[in-house]
Structure prediction request, 176 residues.
Amino acid sequence: MTKRTLLPAESLSADTQAFFDVLNNEPDLSAVVISAAYIDACLAALLEKFFVASAVSAKVLDSRSGSLGSLSSRADACYVLGLVSKPLYQDLLVLAEMRNQFAHHHLSLSFASPELSESCSRLMYPVMLKNGNTDEPLYTPGQLRNPRDRFTMTVVLISQRLLLTALGTQKREPAV
Prediction:
């Protein structure tokens, strides 16, 4: 079995428009599964940039057998390393849960289903962001009442925050 290549943040950033097209045009199942995969790749790119250049870095980030190969484990690592805030981290865990709800349900789910609607209501990253230098929220909970809209806005804001952080992170040198 060959290892999957980690995509660099620059490549993921170049794919942003295609990702947004999926969010805006694809059915709920595709939007959730592809969003989780994109966010997972963004987390891997951030960690890869933060880690020292080493075969060990690639080994732990390998999505098939690495200790940091899953979305949840990558989110955990980014949080404890101080690369993401607690509200962003909490939403990453909700997104992973939503992906699992879709992936393990025997019938097609939608954002209209009670369990997905409830999961979307727990996404808080967009409503905790402030509007510029004010204490005013960027979004109010009422603006993101529709579950799909709340999901989409959360995924867009989180993916762009992860990519910006990765693009601004300097590769570390191994300790001597």
Summary: The mean pLDDT is 93. The chain has one domain: 9-167. DSSP finds nine helices and no strands in the chain. The two ends are 33 Å apart (CA to CA).
